[in-house]
Amino acid sequence: MTVSVDGQDVQVKGPKGELKLTVAKPLEVKVEEGQVLVSRPDDERESRSLHGLTRTLINNNIIGVTQGYTKGLEVVGTGYRVQQKGSNIEFALGFSHPVLVEPPAGITFTVEGNNKITVSGIDKQAVGETAANIRKIRKPEPYKGKGVRYAGEVVRRKAGKAGK
């Protein structure tokens, strides 16, 4: 894995690909002795908050190009299912039509069974946003818990109408 700094641009290359990041103006990034150092010019509030953000974004890029990121989704509900169509995925979620989702650049979908999806890629933000957009198609509802949810997500259930 290599990190190169060109002014305010930080480029991280690894076995899974490469990512670029533009650092906010007052901060400086240096690579010394195998470490990436982020320094701020003063202790102003904005500089301190940008310092932590920049450090975390660079760390996320390093983890992304070496290990990658994955996010799991589950489809819950009678008749709800998902299947792979090439690189795309097709959902049957109780609508009158199937919903086809195309992966953005750098994102891959894998489907296990007919109700589990894994979104993977090297950019943490893109993986999370893609998973959130898929979940947005049919959020889990509070009465029966049907819909698309994150793996391990606990859906708060409500009591239905009380019968006489």
Topology:
Elements: E1 2-6, E2 9-14, E3 17-22, E4 28-32, E5 35-39, H1 45-66, E6 69-76, E7 81-85, E8 88-92, E9 99-101, E10 107-112, E11 116-121, H2 124-137, E12 147-150
Antiparallel strand pairs: 1-2, 2-3, 4-5, 6-11, 6-12, 7-8, 8-9, 10-11
How would you explain this protein's 3D organization?
This protein is an alpha+beta fold. It folds into 2 domains: 2-67, Outer Surface Protein A, domain 3, CATH 3.90.930.12; 69-150, Ribosomal protein L6 (Outer Surface Protein A, domain 3). 22% of the residues lie in helices and 39% in strands. It has 2 helices and 12 strands. A hairpin with a 3-residue loop joins strand 10 and strand 11. It is elongated, with a radius of gyration of 21 Å. The model has no long low-confidence stretch (mean pLDDT 92). This protein binds to the 23S rRNA, and is important in its secondary structure. It is located near the subunit interface in the base of the L7/L12 stalk, and near the tRNA binding site of the peptidyltransferase center.
